[in-house]
Amino acid sequence: MLKRLLSLALCAMLMLTACAWLPARAEDALDDFTVTTIDGETLTLSGILKEKKMVFINFFTTWCYYCKVEFPYMNAAYKKHKDDVLILGLDPDGSETAEQLKSFRKEHKLTFPIADSTQALTGSLAAQLGVNGYPTSVVIDRFGHIAMTLVGAQPSANAFAQVFDYFTSDDYTSPETLNAIPAKAKKKAPKASAYASLVPSGDPITVEASGSPYQWPFVADKEKGVFVSSNQGVDNSVSTLRVTVEAEAGDALLFDRELSAESPYDQLLVERDGEVLLLDVGTIPMSTVSVPLKAGRNSLSISYFKDGADSAGDDRVRIKDLRLGKAEEEDGPTEPTMLGGASVNLLSLPDSYPYKGHQYAVTGADGSVVITLPQSMNSGAFALHRAAKGNISPLPERDKEGTFTVPALSEGVNGYDCLTLVRVVRGRYAEYCHLWVFKDEQTLNDYVSQMNSGLGSAITWEYAQ
Predict the structure, then answer these.
(1) Which residues of 95-133 are buried (b: 16+ CB within 10 A; e: fewer)?
(2) CB 341, CB 367: distance < 8 Å
(3) Would you give per-residue pLDDT tens digits along the chain (465 residues)?
(4) How far, CA to CA in Å, does 330 sit from each of 265, 383, 432?
(5) Which residue, among 426, 433, 302, 439, has the nearest Cα to 366 in the 3D structure?
(6) To which CATH superfamily is domain 337-463 assigned?
(7) Which end of the chain is more exposed for a tag (fewer CB within 10 A), N or C?
(8) Which residues, at least 6 apart from 445, have a Cβ–Cβ distance to it below 8 Å?
C-alpha cells in the first residue's frame, strides 16, 4: 500500500504549490468564463452547457508532438459526438498569434473552436486546472463540474469516444469525479422482486439495481443469504444498489456487511446526492453498520468501487438485512482534526492570501501532531501529505487514546511544513484539514515576512487563547 501511496504522491507533487497541491478540486464547479476564439466568436461556459452535455477543454501547443498524435483520434470521435459535446482548444503557450493558429488548425484539419494564447484566460485556466504538460484535457460535465482530467495523448478514437459516451449518456444524472471511465457491466441485474429478501423487516425501504450500463449489479448468493458485488477482478468498475428509504428524524439505515478488499483503494461506499455517508476499506467480518438518515425520502447508493490496480482478499462485498433503526450519537469529534504545539492565529490576511482556513502552530523541532478521527470514519482510507517533501503516507496505528500521533517535522525538513489530512475517495484525494507547523517563532516570523513581501501585505500573528 505504501508503494502505491508514494506513486500517487508523485502525481500530486507535479501540481504542488506550497500547500495548495490541488489547484482545482474535481468535486468543485468550474467558474463561468468567457473566451474569444481565433474566428472572433465569443463563448461562455454557461452558454455552451445550455446547448451541450459536456465541454472537453483540450490544452495543447503547436510544438507539442503528442498533441499532434492525438488530434486525428480526437477529430474522429468529435465528428460523431458534436451534437452533445463541444471541444474547446486552448493554447496557453504564449508564442502563437491567431493567424498562426488558423494555419495550424488548417494543417491538422481541426474542426473545433480554438482560443489563442494572447488571452490571459488560457493561462489562468491552465493554472486553475493544474495543467503542467501537454496535451492535457479536462472534462466539464453538464452540471459545470470538473469531472475528469486526461493527461497525455489518448491512443485511439475509441478512447475519446468512451469519455464522450459516458458523460453524454442519459444515465449520467449527477456530478461524478473519475480517474477512468468505468468498465461496462457484463452481469445481468436480478429482477426487482429478487431484492425484496434484502429487507426482511418490511420497513419502508426499496432496493433496486441502478439500471446504468456502467454499474454492475449486486447478485444473490442464496446459499449464504446475502447479495454480493459482481465486479470482482474488473478494473475501474463499480457495483451499485439503489436504496430509497422513507425516514423520520433520528432514523438510520442499518445493514450487515462483509468486506474483503485492497485497502485503501477498493471501497464500500454509501452515498446520498454525492455526499459520502459511509466509506469502508480493508477486511471487515460480517457486522452491522449504521448510516444516519435525514427526515423524509433518502435516495442512497450502496457501491463497491474497484480501482484500476491491485486486488486483495476476495475482492468483493457482501450485504444483507437492510432495516430501519435509530441513529446513535457519536462521542468525540464529528470531523477530523489535527492539533500540535502552540496554536497560532494569523492576523490581517489580505484577500490574496492563498491559505485562508488553514491552521498554524509552533511545535518545536521535535514536536508531534495528534490526528483525531470520528469513530464512524474508517482510518484505513486516510493518509497524510507533507508538502516539504511532497510525500503521502498512511496513518500510523492508533495509540491508546484512540488518536494518531505523527512527528510535526519529518526528518531532513528544517523550519516549517504544511501537513494535509486526506482521504481516498473513489481513487482521488479529498482534503480535510491543513496544519502548518513551525520549528520556532523565528521560523514563523520569516514565513510571515516572506508572505508580506510577496503579497504587499501586513500580516501579523499571535498565539491563540
Answers:
(1) ebebeebeebbeebebebbbbbbebebbbebbebbbbee
(2) yes
(3) 433 333 333 333 323 323 322 323 444 678 888 889 999 999 999 999 999 999 999 999 999 999 999 999 999 999 999 999 999 999 887 778 888 999 999 999 999 999 876 665 666 788 788 888 899 999 999 999 999 999 999 999 999 999 999 999 998 888 888 888 989 999 888 888 889 889 988 899 999 998 889 999 999 998 888 999 999 999 889 999 999 999 999 999 999 999 999 988 899 999 998 789 999 999 999 999 999 999 999 999 999 999 876 778 899 999 999 999 998 877 777 889 999 999 999 999 999 898 989 999 999 999 999 999 998 899 999 999 999 988 889 999 988 888 999 999 988 888 999 999 999 888 778 888 999 999 999 999 999 999 999 999 999 999 998
(4) 26, 23, 19
(5) 439
(6) Immunoglobulins (2.60.40.10)
(7) C
(8) none
Q: Which of 381, 427, 1 is nearest to 182 (CA)?
A: 427
The residues near 288 (Cβ < 8 Å, ≥ 6 apart) are 254, 255, 256
Q: Nearest Cα to 341, choosing from 425, 464, 191?
A: 464
Assess whether the region 28-168 and the region 337-463 belong to the same CATH fold: no
Chain-centre distance of CA 108, in angstroms?
A: 34
Residues 6+ apart with CB under 8 A from 7: none
User: In CATH, what is the architecture of 28-168?
Assistant: 3-Layer(aba) Sandwich (3.40)
Domain ranges of the chain: 28-168, 192-326, 337-463
Q: H or E segment at 9?
A: helix 2-13
The CATH-assigned architecture of domain 192-326 is Sandwich (2.60)
At 165, the amino acid letter reads: D
β pairing state of 428-438 and 359-362: parallel
265 contacts 381 by C-beta, under 8 angstroms: no
Contacts of residue 366, Cβ cutoff 8 Å, sequence gap at least 6: 407
pLDDT at 13: 32
Q: Three cell numbers at 275?
A: 455526499
Residues contacting 82, CB < 8 A, separation 6+: 111
- Is residue 340 within 8 Å of 369, Cβ to Cβ? yes
Cell of 41: 466568436
CB 209 within 8 A of CB 217: yes
**How far apart are alpha carbons 119 and 92 in whole angstroms?**
8
Phi, psi (rounded to 5 degrees) for 163: -65, -45
Tell whether omega for the bond before 292 is within 30 degrees of 0, i.e. cis.
Answer: no
